[in-house]
Amino acid sequence: MKNEKESNVKKIMAEERWNKRNARAYERYIKIAPKKEEEFWENAIVNSSTNKNAFVLDLGTGTGFLARILLKQGFKVIGLDLSKDMLDVARRKASNAFLVRGDAENIPLKDSSVDLIVSRWVLWTLLHPWKALEEVVRVLKPNGCAMLCDGESKNISKPAVILGRIRSFFMDILIGWRLPTWRRVYKKLNPHLQRWNHEQISEKLRELGVEDIKVVHNINKRSSLLHKLLFYSEWEQFVVIFSKRG
């Protein structure tokens, strides 16, 4: 029964939350994403000192936002995602990446096979984020680097939350060309999602023997005032960066 329930949750995430319509809407948002975030990733990848001929895993590649940045820098990119529809968009936008449909909790790669792993807004979508972290450490080469971006709840007043959600409702219609019916999907998913914060992620990594851990908070904090007004979020973005011991 447990395995059946887990399979159903993953099916809902892949086929209802990230279906064709929502994949296209997600790509429209990507096009107007803050340039500050793109700059952060460009600099972070350069600062990782990863060899340009290296294999890089984009875990939960989605429509290929990070894959495109990596390809521009000359890396060999493997993009993994659970959603077929998200991968269909990625194939058009990051055609030189090797794109694979698969589960972040069971990465279909050999031990110590990639030099760099990047991930953006994936861990919060998982039933077992600890399994994904175990997999990341497993497939990462010794001395390899990983950068895992996710979010944690802000301390926001209830009136601000209500106003923000009204604003995001209309932005979804204007930019996403959709009614935000995806919110209903989360009523099915929320009881099963762990939503780990940066401290829980770091603690699990230490259990796995990782020592060199750095957390960068709110990588969009220098976004324009207009962007902040238009795009409400109850989450604060962070990136956990670490290296695997040699």
Task: List its traits.
seven-stranded mixed β-sheet, Rossmann fold, alpha/beta, 246 residues
Characterize the structure shown.
By secondary structure, this protein is α/β, with parallel strands linked by helices. The protein has one domain (2-243): Vaccinia Virus protein VP39 (Rossmann fold). Helices cover 46% and strands 20% of the residues. The protein is built from 10 helices and 7 strands. A 7-stranded mixed beta sheet has the order 3-2-1-4-5-7-6, with helices on both faces. α1 (2-17) runs antiparallel to α8 and α2 packs across α5. The N and C termini lie far apart (41 Å). The mean pLDDT is 87.
Mean pLDDT: 87
Rounded to an integer in angstroms, the radius of gyration calculated over CA atoms is 17 Å
> In the CATH hierarchy, what is the superfamily?
Vaccinia Virus protein VP39
CATH topology: the name is: Rossmann fold
Specify the helix fraction band. 40-55%
* Main CATH class: Alpha Beta
CATH architecture: 3-Layer(aba) Sandwich
Q: What would a concise description of this structure say?
A:
The protein has a single domain (2-243), classed as Vaccinia Virus protein VP39 (Rossmann fold, 3-Layer(aba) Sandwich). The chain is 46% helix and 20% strand. The chain has helices at 2-17, 20-31, 35-47, 65-72, 84-93, 129-139, 158-176, 182-189, 198-207, 225-230, and strands at 55-59, 76-81, 98-101, 114-120, 140-153, 213-217, 235-243.
